[in-house]
Amino acid sequence: MPRRRVSYYYDPDVGAYSYGLGHPMKPLRMRITHELLTAYDMLEKMDVLRAERATPEAMTSFHTDEYIHFLARVTPDTAEELTYNGTRFLVGDDNPAFEGVFEFCSISAGGTIAAAKRITSGAADISINWAGGLHHAKKREASGFCYINDIVLGILELLRTYPRVLYIDIDCHHGDGVEEAFYTTDRVMTCSFHKFGEYFPGTGTQEDRGKGKGTGYAINVPLKDGLNDDSLRSIYEPVIARAVDVFQPSVIVLQCGADSLAGDKLGCFNVTMQGHAHCVRFVRDMNIPFILLGGGGYTVKNTSRTWVYETACALGIENDIDLNLPWNEFFDWFGPRYRLEVAENNMEDTNLKDGSLDRVREAALQQISELQ
Ligand SMILES: CN1CC(C(=O)N[C@@H](CCCCCC(O)(O)c2ccon2)c2nc(-c3ccccc3F)c[nH]2)C1
Ligand SMILES: [Ca+2]
Ligand SMILES: [Zn+2]
């Protein structure tokens, strides 16, 4: 197994931000991941970097000036007034104006922009930013716990050097913000696997394929409850292989949202850590430079376990690490087995009923083939 040059972005402040009581998004998970990577002695195998925080100017290469000007100044006390009673910029309970929200976003976006620059400079084969992957953020407003779309900003950075970027999204939710941003171009192929049907954000049907020059370059793989490892692999591998073969991307961006794992608080799939990580290994083994990003993931202990294991996959050492967790500051989070594993449960895989998985796979493969 060739060893790859891995750059890992982390800001020690990121774990201190909170979306507020009762909110499922926990920035602490990035700190737990970092402590576990430290305990596994993985940091010494990577370039560990702290990115410059993204400036408001950098953010306006995608977002509107008005939205960024708002986000840079909103506080819990001024939110009601500045959002016109929750009707603009931050809508609903999903996207609170929490303390330090703009700093949190500048750390997340700064990491992904730096990760992209690290790849285009040729200094790394793989860049990692577990604080990134906030795929729902829109040009002029927050959505689904995402305020600044670091992924769009990172892909715009990659497009300054590369002709074609493949975006893959294995978060349980549809990567709508990224798909929308690149919907009319053939330079970015977006490919999202997600639960579709009575589930946020509601978009991501297979009928949505792109527009104008972008027609055919938005791939949607809508899935049902209970998706297991075999089902995921049986659709992910052929679709990604065909996408890479036809589109010939210069670089890949992989959003590794961990809410597609079995037992996730907001998710509805039955994928194990091994099944989730196989998606990373499949991209790794293509020997195309890529960026690994975070995303959703609400059962925090399993999110951290999986991102640690996927970091090991990037390093090519996943077969050498001890699955008995090393002592770390958050050790008691991992009881009672204290293992590096996320097991499946007994959910039925409803994707296997009436051949829907086969039809979805065929439609996606046909769509990609038509681009040739
Ligand atoms: C008005 N309707 C209610 C809204 C709605 O159902 N929103 C989804 C949002 C789920 C966001 C998922 C984010 C993500 O995992 O995809 C992600 C986050 C970062 O990168 N990716 C949701 N909010 C919650 C939620 C929000 C606040 C408090 C408790 C909750 F359960 C759960 N699921 C719409
Ligand atoms: Ca997805
Ligand atoms: Zn999600």
Characteristics of this structure?
single chain; 372 residues; 8 strands; binds ligand V1D
Question: Can you offer a commentary on this structure?
Answer:
By secondary structure, this protein is an alpha/beta fold. The protein is 33% helix and 10% strand. It contains eleven helices and eight strands. Strands 2-1-3-8-7-4-5-6 form an eight-stranded parallel sheet, with helices on both faces. Helix 9 (273-284) links the parallel strand 7 (251-255) and strand 8 (290-293). The longest helix has 20 residues, at 101-120. The structure holds the ligand CN1CC(C(=O)N[C@@H](CCCCCC(O)(O)c2ccon2)c2nc(-c3ccccc3F)c[nH]2)C1, calcium ion and zinc ion. The ligand CN1CC(C(=O)N[C@@H](CCCCCC(O)(O)c2ccon2)c2nc(-c3ccccc3F)c[nH]2)C1 binds next to loops.
